[in-house]
Specification:
Layout lengths: L12 E3 L2 E2 L11 E3 L2 H5 L7 H13 L21 H32 L4 H26 L7 H7 L2 E3 L2 H28 L12 H21 L7 H24 L1 H6 L4 H16 L5 E2 L5 H21 L5 H24 L3 E2 L4 H4 L1
Parallel strand pairs: 3-4
Antiparallel strand pairs: 1-2, 5-6
Length: about 350
C-alpha cells in the first residue's frame, strides 16, 4: 500500500556535510536479510556449469578501472540549483542507498556461505565488490553538492526486512534487471541528447548497467538451479506479486519525482512504461508469468494510486491534527489497496507458452 510522502528534497544534516538519511517508507529502498542456513543447503548441481561460467565473468572484472572520476567533475555545480538540485541529490541518495543495500546483503551471503557453497560465496563476494563501487561512486557524486551519506550510520540505523531465500531471489533478480533497463534507457537518451546531460555521472551508465545485467543473470541461474522456485502454482502467484510490487513502486516514485526526469529531458511516464515493458519481457525468460502491462487498465489503476497519494501528501502537510488526519487518510489507503488488489488479479501472461515473443 502507498504511503504519503513529504515533498522531496530535505537537506537536513547529521553533522556538517553528512545528510540525514531519507525517512523510511514503503517506497524507499529496503535493506534485506535472509535464512543463511537454508541458502547454504541449496543444491545447485542442476545448473552449476552456468553458475561457474558466470563466476568466471565476475572474476574478469570488466569494470575494474571504470569507476574513476575524471576532470569533468572538477567544477562548481552551483548552477544546478533550487528544486532541480534537491531532486538530483535525492536521486543520488536513493540510488546510493539501493546499491549499498545490495552490497551489505551480498557481502554477508559471501561470508556465511564461504565454507558451505564456495561457488555461490565467491559470486556473492564479487557482486558485493561491484555494488560497493557503485555506492561509493554515487556517494562521491553527492559530495559535489556538499552532502554525503554516512554509510556506517546507515548500516546500523536502517530496519532490515527478512525474506526467505526464494523471495530474495525474486526481489534481487528484478531489482538488478530493472536497474539495467533504467540505466541503459537514460544512457541512450542522453547519448542522443547530450544537451540534457546536466551532470557527468550519466556517462558511466553504459558500463554500470552491464554490472546490473550480470548480477541479474546470476540470480536467473540460481533460480534455474532450484526449479521448485519457478514451476508450481505458488511460484506463479509470488512472481506476479513481486513483478507488481517492483513496477508499482518504481512508477509511483518516479511520477512523484517527474521534475527530475524532465531536467534530463525525459517524460517520467513514458520512461517508466518503456522500462516496465522491457523488464517484464526480460523476466518472462525465467519467471513462469508476466504481467499484462499493455492493458490500458494497468496504468489507469496506477494513476488512481498516484492521485490518492497526492491527496495523502496534502493531508500530511495540512494543519489538521494528527489524530484527525488518520481518519482522513484511511479511505485513501483502502482505495489504494483495492487498486493494487485489482492489479494483482488481472489475468497474467503465461510466459511458458510465450516462446515466440520473449524467449
Amino acid at each position: 500500500m502507498v504511503e504519503s510522502l513529504k515533498k522531496p528534497g530535505s537537506d537536513e544534516e547529521l553533522r556538517p556535510g553528512v545528510k540525514v538519511p531519507a525517512r523510511e517508507t514503503l517506497l524507499t529502498p529496503r535493506f534485506y536479510t535472509t535464512d543463511f542456513d537454508e541458502m547454504a543447503r541449496m543444491d545447485i548441481s542442476v545448473n552449476e556449469e552456468e553458475l561457474q561460467a558466470i563466476l568466471e565473468e565476475f572474476r574478469v572484472d570488466y569494470n575494474r578501472h571504470h569507476f574513476v572520476r575524471n576532470e569533468e567533475f572538477e567544477q562548481s555545480w552551483e548552477h544546478i540549483d533550487g528544486e532541480t538540485r534537491q531532486l538530483f541529490i535525492e536521486f543520488l541518495e536513493r540510488s546510493c542507498t539501493a546499491e549499498f543495500s545490495g552490497f551489505l546483503l551480498y557481502k554477508e551471503l559471501g561470508r556465511r556461505l564461504k565454507h558451505k557453497s564456495p561457488v555461490l560465496a565467491e559470486c556473492f563476494n564479487l557482486m558485493s565488490r561491484d555494488e560497493a563501487r557503485h555506492a561509493g561512486f554515487l556517494n562521491k557524486a553527492m559530495s559535489d553538492f556538499n552532502l554525503s551519506l554516512d554509510l556506517g550510520f546507515l548500516t546500523k540505523s536502517r530496519n532490515y526486512t527478512f525474506f526467505k531465500p526464494k523471495f530474495i531471489f525474486y526481489a534481487t533478480y528484478l531489482s538488478e534487471k530493472i536497474g539495467y533497463w533504467r540505466y541503459i534507457t537514460i544512457y541512450r537518451h542522453l547519448e542522443q541528447h547530450p544537451e540534457d546531460r546536466i551532470y557527468p555521472i550519466f556517462r558511466w551508465f553504459e558500463n554500470w548497467c552491464q554490472d546490473e545485467n550480470r548480477h541479474g543473470d546470476f540470480f536467473d541461474a540460481i533460480m534455474r538451479a532450484q526449479p521448485q522456485m519457478l514451476n508450481d502454482w505458488k511460484a506463479r502467484l509470488w512472481c506476479r506479486f513481486f513483478l507488481l510490487s517492483v513496477f508499482a513502486t518504481m512508477y509511483l516514485n518516479d511520477i512523484q519525482r517527474q521534475d527530475f526526469y524532465a531536467s534530463i529531458g525525459l517524460n517520467a511516464r513514458d520512461y517508466d512504461k518503456h522500462v516496465i515493458k522491457k523488464t517484464n519481457e526480460t523476466a518472462g525468460r525465467v519467471f513462469p508469468v508476466m504481467l499484462d502491462v499493455e492493458s490500458p487498465q494497468f496504468y489507469d489503476r496506477l494513476e488512481v494510486c498516484i492521485k490518492n497519494n497526492e491527496k495523502l501528501t496534502a493531508i500530511a502537510n495540512s494543519n489538521t491534527p494528527k489524530f484527525l488526519q488518520l481518519f482522513q487518510k484511511l479511505p485513501l489507503y483502502v482505495a489504494t489497496g483495492w487498486q493494487f488488489l485489482k492489479l494483482y488479479l488481472m489475468k497474467p501472461i503465461d510466459a511458458t507458452v510465450a516462446e515466440g515473443t520473449v524467449r
